[in-house]
């Protein structure tokens, strides 16, 4: 046999009972969910900033980062809705490398999935407890979201998952915004097909049950750039790209047209400092065209305490990414004030 069962993991309901959300945290999440929903439905014109490390690899560093983020968030709250990006599982193009805290709660040790599901739930809850901010994560494994579905305020579906049927159908049963990234090919129709699927009701098998969903009217697009057949990055955050997406959205019968611009990945060619310039260009495009001001609801930024990235060694730099490079805290702080001024 090519597969060995290591352990029977607890059911989501069991894990939630063991690590529950307090009534206070439930109310914080409800309030934030309402405010975020209002942005996507056009009731509020606040601008969303999804900011955080490429991968959340160290609970203390992540909590320190979000504590700093929360302080700035308070100052710009009338204009900006900050959602901490706490990504606990990482897609690996070749299958190799650090797969996130879900797999390895300690990046220097062997994978431990039981410890992983506990660690990620505890971390998301701790962030909310200490900062009052509910969080965003990536839905890499649709069946695993049940361990966090009462905690998260936003989920993203990555470029490599966006064509997957199970991701699309699971997204249709969520009651929070779900962002569909364009695939690595950059094909916008694939991304919009995914949004369409998520906005419709479905019936399918989920965690061994026959389930029925009502469709998620907050499903929307995320532009993250693409790669051509020669491996060259093709950005899609420019004015013309946003205008083209607005045009396409008009032809598709979709609820709550919205796009978040991911300013790293293929949009920056992973030149992490470029994120600052790209955000500035996106803000300029929004302010130039009222239609784009309505459509572009926010940006996604990869940032951490210390800029750049590092290899996994015994002497890890506290608060520096071990996956993609990020901008550091000072740049992030300035960028948030800048966004608040321009949005």
How is this fold's topology laid out?
Blueprint lengths: L11 H7 L4 H18 L6 E6 L6 H17 L4 E5 L28 H19 L3 E4 L13 E6 L7 H7 L6 E4 L6 H12 L3 E4 L2 E4 L6 E5 L2 E2 L5 E2 L4 H13 L7 E4 L2 H4 L5 H15 L1 H6 E7 L3 E4 L10 E2 L7 H14 L1
Parallel strand pairs: 1-2, 1-12, 3-4, 4-5, 5-8, 8-11, 11-12, 13-14
Antiparallel strand pairs: 6-7, 9-10
Order of helices and strands: HHEHEHEEHEHEEEEEHEHHHEEEH
Largest β sheet strand count, sense and barrel closure? 8 strands, parallel
Between the first and last Cα atoms, what is the distance in angstroms? Answer: 57 Å
Topology, number of strands:
14
Main sheet: which strands, in order across?
2-1-12-11-8-5-4-3
What is the CA-based Rg, rounded? Answer: 19 Å
Q: What's the tally of helices?
A: 11
Oligomer: single chain
Please indicate the percent range of residues in DSSP E strands (runs of 2 or more).
15-25%
**DSSP helix fraction:** 25-40%
Question: What spatial form do the alpha-carbon principal axes imply?
Answer: globular
Structural class: alpha/beta
Structure description:
38% of the residues lie in helices and 17% in strands. With 343 residues, it is an alpha/beta fold. An 8-stranded parallel sheet has the order 2-1-12-11-8-5-4-3. The protein is globular. The relative contact order is 0.14. The model has no long low-confidence stretch (mean pLDDT 96).
Essential attributes:
single chain, eight-stranded parallel sheet, 38% helix, 17% strand, 11 helices, 343 residues, 14 strands, alpha/beta, two-stranded antiparallel ribbon
């Amino acid at each position: 046999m090519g597969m060995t069962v290591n352990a029977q993991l607890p059911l989501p309901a069991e894990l939630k009972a063991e690590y529950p959300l307090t009534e206070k945290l439930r109310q914080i999440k409800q309030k934030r969910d309402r405010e975020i929903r209002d942005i996507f439905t056009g009731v509020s014109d606040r601008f969303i900033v999804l900011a955080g490390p490429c991968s959340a690899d160290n609970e203390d560093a992540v909590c320190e980062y979000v504590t700093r983020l929360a302080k700035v968030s308070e100052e710009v709250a009338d204009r900006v809705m900050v959602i901490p990006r706490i990504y606990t599982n990482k897609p690996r193009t070749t299958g190799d490398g650090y797969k996130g805290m879900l797999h390895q709660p300690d990046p220097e040790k062997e994978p431990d999935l039981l410890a992983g599901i506990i660690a990620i739930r505890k971390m998301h809850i701790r962030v909310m407890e200490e900062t009052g901010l509910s969080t965003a994560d990536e839905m890499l494994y649709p069946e695993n979201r049940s361990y966090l579905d009462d905690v998260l305020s936003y989920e993203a579906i990555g470029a490599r998952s966006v064509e997957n049927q199970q991701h699309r159908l699971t997204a249709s049963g969520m009651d929070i915004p779900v962002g569909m990234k364009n695939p690595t090919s950059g094909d916008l129709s694939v991304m919009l097909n995914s949004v369409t699927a998520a906005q419709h009701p479905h019936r399918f098998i989920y965690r061994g049950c026959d389930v029925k969903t009502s469709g998620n009217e907050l499903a929307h697009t995320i532009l993250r750039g693409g790669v051509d057949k020669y491996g060259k990055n093709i950005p899609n955050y420019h004015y013309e790209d946003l205008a083209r997406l607005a045009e396409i959205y008009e032809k598709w019968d979709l609820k709550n047209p919205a796009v978040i611009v991911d300013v790293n990945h293929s949009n920056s060619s992973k030149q992490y400092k470029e994120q600052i310039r790209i955000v500035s260009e996106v803000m300029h495009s929004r302010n130039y065209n009222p239609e784009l001001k309505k459509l572009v609801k926010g940006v996604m930024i990869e940032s951490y305490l210390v800029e750049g990235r590092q290899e996994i060694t015994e002497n890890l730099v506290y608060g520096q990414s071990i996956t993609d490079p990020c901008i550091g805290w000072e740049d992030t702080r300035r960028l948030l004030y800048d966004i608040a001024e321009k949005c």
